Amino acid sequence: MNLSLEVPTPLGYFATLVQSDADFPLLEAAVSLAQDEYPDLDVQQVLGEVDQLLARLKRRIPADAGPLQKLRAINQFFFHDLNFAGNVNDYYDPDNSFLSVVLRKRRAIPISLAVLWIELAQGLGLAARGVGFPGHFMLKVNLPEGQVVIDPMDGQSLSREQLSERLAPFQPVGGLGDDFEVPLGLYLQMAQPREIIARMLHNLKEIHTSQEDWPRLVAVLNRLIVLLPTTWTEYRDRGLAQANLGHTEQALQDLQTYLSNAQEVGDHGAIARRVAELKQP
Description:
The protein is mostly helical. Helix content is 52%, strand content 7%. The relative contact order is 0.10.
């Protein structure tokens, strides 16, 4: 019997990871994002490196340690001993989104640091989750003493006053008045794994769009469409990027998918005109 094992493409592998919300491997999906930029990346090796960090951390913590003691231990280990921190000097470097690089350089953006921190915290049994706070991804840990919100850039615990201050630039100005402001608690809801991966990909999308790096942008949009198959704006954006690359057939397919599915959108006319242009001989 002739057995043939076909190695999946990076995009095919990603698709298998994100197909179900019921069993979504956040860390593995996040690590796999680097495969477009680093084709030889061994995802399992990176997962093993994180497991080794967790084993080191566990050896430092007494067996009878409570949740608060574990929280202090992980912050000491992650932010001080390992010296993970925000990459404030090169915030828009795409490598900040690639966990294999982050593990080596110990510098990243909040969401990448948060994914690693969550993996370690959950490995200790802590009720740790990510929070899709506007403008800056956060960490949240539920302790017997109460809820703690942490900045993954430096491990600082944030008070309600500090969170409200950070939220202020994103609150609507004027209009209905303070009585109609969205309560702070609604901004501290747990981010689902699919939402976290989408936010990581959107960070990369923004970088590649600003640099007009169409091949890398298409690669990111391929993943976003696999992850969020009914978010029609991603088809539009991929179609426009394909058009910039001269890939007319692929561009038309994506743009027509957008026009067929996205109803009553403000740019319908502009995209329809772009489609007409692409169809011209």
